[in-house]
Amino acid sequence: MVYLDTSVLVAAFTNEEKTDSALAYLEQESEAMTSEWALTEVASALMIKVRRKELSRADETQAWKQFLAWAAFSGAIRAIPAGCFEKAATLLRGSSGLRAGDSLHLSAALSLGATRLASFDLTLTKSARALGLGTAKI
Q1: How far apart are CA 18 and CA 8, in angstroms?
Q2: How does pLDDT run across 93-113, given as a tens digit for each residue?
Q3: What is the pTM of this model?
């Protein structure tokens, strides 16, 4: 089972340099999952793009709807297991450069039994490998 980080999801539903790679990966990966935290992070990332004028409000709305449709169709969104926030805090205290949201993704991936992490974030993938989690080639 592969855990999808927000960087892959945002790339899949907006027009970015890595959009084609993200879309191809989502289409071919049948055992993908992410956590409810992705809902918050995808919404945040889309609104940041609107504020930076990288995305119109109409395009943001379309991307959000496409993301929600994918989530409903794929059934990929999982509840954050008990203890993940505490585990994320522990990961933060022992990491070099891991951000709070990424530590929560990593904690959720481990708690949900993921065997691989799909992310474009090099710091996150490095931390995942250090914890014994494989990383997906996208």
Answers
A1: 8
A2: 987 789 999 999 999 999 999
A3: 0.94
